């Protein structure tokens, strides 16, 4: 049963990435605007479905919180980008075509700044 749940969640995450859901903020008038250059917006678009609030719905022990990142040898933006480009089982691969180097760096910096 646990394996079925893991496969279902991983499939859901991949579908969300392929669908390319977008997250928006509101400007002063209340109009929705996408913050394309924001690490937060990019994180919400590409990562939040599997990592809500920095957690991990597929592999709960591998969260994006500083303690767990450190335990998994991740301490700087380059480490996160490397994991995005060549992840382990259960995580979608984010190649340069899916997420540019600039966007990947913004995501990595957002993760390190946000999930303490």
Task: Give a written overview of the molecule.
- The chain has 116 residues and is mainly alpha-helical.
- Helix 2 packs across helix 5 (101-114) and helix 4 packs across helix 5 (101-114).
- The chain has a single domain (2-114), classed as Cytochrome Bc1 Complex, Chain D, domain 2.
- A two-stranded antiparallel sheet has the order 1-2.
- It starts with a helix and ends with a helix.
- A hairpin with a 5-residue loop joins strand 1 and strand 2 (32-33).
- The protein contains five helices and two strands; from the N terminus they run αββαααα.
- The model is unreliable at 4-11 and 13-24 (pLDDT under 50).
Nutshell version of this structure?
The protein is mainly alpha-helical. The chain has helices at residues 2-19, 39-46, 66-71, 77-85, 101-114; strands at 25-26, 32-33. It has a two-stranded antiparallel ribbon.
From the structure above, extract its key features:
globular, single chain, 116 residues, two-stranded antiparallel ribbon, Cytochrome Bc1 Complex, Chain D, domain 2, mainly alpha, 5 helices
Set out the fold topology:
Elements: H1 2-19, E1 25-26, E2 32-33, H2 39-46, H3 66-71, H4 77-85, H5 101-114
Antiparallel strand pairs: 1-2
Helix pairs in contact: 2-5, 4-5
């Amino acid at each position: 049963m646990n394996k079925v749940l893991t496969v279902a969640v991983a499939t859901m995450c991949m579908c969300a990435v392929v669908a390319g859901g977008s997250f928006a903020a509101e400007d002063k008038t209340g109009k929705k605007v996408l913050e394309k250059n924001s690490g937060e917006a990019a994180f919400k678009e590409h990562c939040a479905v599997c990592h809500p609030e920095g957690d991990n719905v597929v592999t709960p022990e591998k969260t994006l919180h500083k303690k767990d990142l450190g335990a998994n040898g991740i301490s700087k933006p380059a480490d996160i980008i490397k994991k995005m480009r060549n992840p382990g089982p259960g995580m979608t691969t984010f190649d340069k075509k899916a997420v540019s180097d600039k966007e990947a760096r913004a995501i990595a910096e957002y993760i390190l700044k946000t999930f303490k």
